[in-house]
Amino acid sequence: MNWLFExxxxxxxxxxxxxxxxxxxxxxxxxxxxxxxxRGQSFAGHSLGDIxxxxxxxxxxxxxxxxxxxLAFGAGAAGFMEMIGVQRRRGRDVATGVVLGGALxxxxxxxxxxxxxxxxxxxxxxxxxxxxxxxTSSTAPALIVSALLALLxxxxxxxxxxxxxxxxxxxxxxxxxxxxxGVVFLIALSISVALSAxxxxxxxxxxLLIGPAATALKVASGPVRAxxxxxxxxxxxxxxxxxxxxxxxxxxxxxxxxxxxxxxSFFIVTLVVGAYLVAFFMPAKRRFVELPAADTSEHSCxxxxx
Amino acid sequence: xxxxxLDGIGVRLGGRQILRDVxxxxxxxxxxxxxxxxxxxxxxxxxxILGLQEVGEGTVHKQGTVGYIPQKLxxxxxxxxxxxxxxxxxxxxxxxxxxxxxRERRDRVEQMLKAVGADRYQNARVGELSGxxxxxxxxAHALISNPELLxxxxxxxxxxxxxxxxxxxxLSELSRKQNIAVLLSAHDMNPLLPVMDRIVYVAGGHxxxxxxxxxxxxxxxxxLYGQEVDVLRVRGRVLVVAATEAVPQKSELPQKPELAQK
Lengths: 306, 262
Hints:
Structural class of chain A: mainly alpha
Largest interface: A-B, 37 and 41 residues
Low-confidence stretches of chain B: none
Oligomer: heterodimer
Structural class of chain B: alpha/beta
Number of strands of chain B: 11
Helix content of chain B: 25-40%
Mean pLDDT of chain A: 83
Distance between the termini of chain A: 75 Å
CATH architecture of chain B: 3-Layer(aba) Sandwich
């Protein structure tokens, strides 16, 4: 590896932007992911990513940064899902499936138009698999502000979201507007998905959203620890991914420098999945050791006779 | 001071009259059993009190704060909340904002867990606990906001006898010591007999309210169910036997057509 000194890794503006944007996105996605997994909405998160494909290709067709396309379609789809989905979990899945099918049909058309019209190859690839190195310093502020907004929403609504996950009835009885809180969370979720799509592409965006969170929920207990652990995993995967992707410019099969380097999304997703597998096969920690049964002397008769 | 007054409550759900003309009141520190067969409307009545269910007729008047534990609370093992997180959510989980950990908060949670006998598993994930242990944690969750009235929907369902007795003992002690009114629904009244101040018996959409010995009588329940009901007292246990639960006579069973023709 000679990238550290020879190829101007640390002085490249692209790399700086990739690090900055990638870090903020990784943290937001990880924190939103913890709530997504806890609420059992991983499928909705994945679907929003797929639907973002439509938005990303549509945005390219009208000459706008893909992030806005991801965001517009993600938020629109999230609202539509909530509208047609009844509160029951099953109804929500059906609603998600229907919206997903419709959006992916449109994506097929848009991607066809993009590939026919554009002379530059790789646009389809960028939409589907990400473009962290293609982010310019002019788009970075919008990405970072969006990420901080989503993060703020999730942190502020965090206790309500957890209480609603524990029991919607308890939350409602204490005056929480459970449905409204759910919609607010879906908005934050669609922002996070759009951001992940920028990093690793629309169809892989779930990996950055769900992967670190699912891993953290296996190893860390307590919501705050889970969020911190998930963020650490997401950030580590993004950083190592950026370094490896930059270095892979000199990797086979185009080791003469004629290639564009391996996709950064490949490295990030591989690292995220690797972390999950390690956590999955790690021997389960016994968190709670049952003590011998407490004294039963408070009962006036033996259980068999009561 | 009366904590709760229900007056002439009627509820229809999906075209079916679930409750009709239900009136009752709850005083501070009272331990009330809400007893009745499955599907009698116990959950609906609790949801009316909580304001989660709209009523067709009648009025609900509440004073003071209400704690609530719903029935069939299934907490999955991968829920990231530890026991102390669940109890902490009981303080202000319904409010917007960031919680900073503090010694005061930690002590309050630990004290509450001690009061329900659940402090030794405060760091366990709540989804990994048994049903009885989860019930204790949920009682701590509901009580930490200092409610004057605690509503519990079938907290003893699916618990073994000694766990159920443990829960009843904790509830009755807290009710007496802290003057908390408890309204607890159950389809089996027996575990509650030693602690109930009063019974609200629900059947056929109507309720009968009063001391256990006054309400759990053949004539009262026969009127309530609208059919012949026997109340048996055996070895300190109460059995309520309705005619429809009896084994059908051979002549009442539907006969096969070919046999009937012969």
